[in-house]
């Protein structure tokens, strides 16, 4: 019995399918509850009376202030033991210390700036008086200091020399005045460090709706950890919400700044209704961030697996068809428009937009992953056989295999680790048994299962291209519409 034992600390990412009874209520547990298929099966009462627990499973937000950079001088923080779909908090230094430091720096900067401003204005005044006296004694009284360029009649050589001297003095005065104005606009030391350390690069055609400083001040919520980094939901001070992926140097291959910038510049141009657009990116001194649009309705993983009881039925087949078509549209666009691949297809990388359209994220960045790093366990079941036991890079046919796994996940509600390897006919029987269908969806269900099976063929050469998969799905959709029309008596 785990309840009422005064346990403290955070919950581990339990994901044992054999765990049928679980109750940790009445303890002193803290932090975010990892969103795993196993923990999602239990209702909120299993986690009750732990006031410092938060997360999606108990419908309690984990809000905090979070940096996207680790300070080299800051003490190490405890690791967050969470799955790829977990949510939690990254904690900053206490706000009071930051505010006091900011106030003292502001006062000091204002005093110094004011002193420099006064002394510089005095120097300018003296310089103007001195130059004015020289001009009056050497130039005709009709010549204006402010408008020397309006003189059009020929001048003696000595007059032109004097005019050049006045112009030079005017340039010196304007330069000093500009420097004084810059003193008032000089950023505080912390801001100056940020500007020197790198800049936020917006993708071509994107409006600069936020700055790096706003991103650093953003309230951040940990959304999950993936194969190449950590993803946050960031709420900026202008109330704009974005998703920030912070690449983990220990999980990414060593690439030059030029290679990274060229690659992000390329995939940052990809625009499709079924892709989450990349808006901007940042890199400097080992830190790399990718900023996406925030999708408000969570991931496909949460829709299929999250907070569902053990006996809940899978999604209706028409929902499966709509989501499958959206995902196939996005993958086909990536393969044909950019000649790149997604490389990390899984249900947690399919997000649901404002209208519940399926949108792909984390696309085309698997190329940055270090092949020697520890593999993400959530991605293993989606990997094509030819890439599992070798260092062979993923291909477009690897994306097709992952799509087939995803389609079976949609149809059955079962995690890919629970999918059997069966012949197409036997696979249909398994899908029908899992869904507990009454036979009304027999034809459409059979066609979708056949698509999933052909995508999951062991040999990559035997798998269809993604555009062919999309065509098959659209034909199933058309046949379903025709069948519905006929059943209503309009055919």
UniProtKB/TrEMBL annotation:
Spans traversing the lipid bilayer: 106-128
Top-level lineage group: Eukaryota
Alphabetical keyword list: Membrane, Transmembrane, Transmembrane helix
Keyword Cytoplasm: no
One Gene Ontology molecular-function label: ATP binding
PROSITE patterns in the record: PROTEIN_KINASE_DOM
One Pfam entry name: Pkinase
Residue ranges annotated for the Protein kinase domain, each copy included: 217-481
Protein name: Protein kinase domain-containing protein
């Amino acid at each position: 019995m785990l309840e009422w034992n005064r346990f403290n600390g955070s919950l581990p990412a339990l994901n044992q399918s054999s765990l049928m009874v679980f109750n940790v209520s009445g303890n002193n547990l803290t932090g975010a509850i990892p969103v795993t298929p196993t923990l999602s099966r239990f209702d909120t009462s299993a986690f009750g009376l732990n006031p410092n627990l938060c997360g999606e499973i108990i419908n309690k937000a984990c809000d905090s202030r979070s940096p996207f950079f680790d300070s080299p001088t800051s003490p190490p923080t405890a690791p967050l033991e969470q799955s790829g779909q977990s949510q939690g908090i990254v904690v900053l230094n206490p706000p009071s210390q930051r505010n006091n430091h900011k106030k003292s720096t502001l006062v000091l900067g204002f005093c110094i700036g004011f002193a420099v401003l006064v002394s510089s204005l005095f120097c300018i005044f003296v310089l103007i008086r001195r130059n004015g006296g020289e001009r009056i004694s050497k130039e005709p009284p009709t010549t204006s200091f402010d408008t020397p360029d309006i003189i059009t009649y020929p001048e003696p050589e000595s007059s032109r020399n004097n005019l050049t001297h006045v112009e030079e003095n005017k340039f010196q005065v304007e330069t000093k005045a500009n420097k004084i104005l810059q003193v008032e606009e000089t950023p505080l030391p912390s801001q100056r460090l940020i500007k020197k350390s790198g800049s936020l690069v917006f993708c071509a055609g994107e409006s600069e709706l936020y700055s790096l400083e706003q991103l650093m001040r953003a309230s951040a919520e940990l959304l999950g950890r993936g194969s190449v980094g950590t993803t946050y939901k960031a709420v900026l001070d202008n109330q704009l919400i974005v998703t920030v992926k912070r690449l983990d140097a220990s999980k990414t291959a060593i690439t030059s700044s030029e290679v990274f910038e060229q690659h992000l510049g390329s995939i940052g141009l990809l625009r499709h209704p079924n892709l989450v657009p990349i808006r901007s990116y940042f890199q400097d001194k080992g830190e790399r961030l990718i900023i996406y649009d925030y999708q408000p309705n969570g991931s496909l993983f949460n829709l299929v697996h999250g907070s569902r009881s053990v006996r809940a039925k899978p999604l209706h087949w028409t929902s499966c068809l709509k989501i499958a078509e959206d995902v196939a549209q996005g993958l086909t666009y990536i393969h044909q428009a950019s000649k790149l691949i997604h490389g990390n297809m899984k249900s947690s990388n399919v997000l649901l937009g404002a209208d519940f359209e399926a949108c792909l994220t984390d696309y085309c960045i698997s190329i940055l992953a270090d092949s020697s790093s520890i593999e993400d366990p959530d991605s293993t079941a989606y990997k094509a056989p030819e890439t599992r036991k070798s260092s062979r890079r993923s291909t477009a046919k690897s994306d097709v295999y992952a799509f087939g796994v995803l389609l079976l996940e949609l149809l059955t509600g079962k995690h890919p680790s629970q999918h059997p390897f069966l012949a197409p006919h036997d696979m249909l029987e398994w899908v029908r048994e899992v869904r507990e269908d009454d036979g009304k969806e027999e034809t459409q269900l059979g066609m979708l299962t056949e698509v999933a099976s052909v995508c999951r063929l062991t040999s990559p050469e035997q798998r269809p291209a993604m555009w062919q998969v999309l065509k098959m799905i659209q034909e199933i959709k058309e046949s379903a519409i025709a069948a519905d029309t006929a059943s209503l008596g309009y055919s």
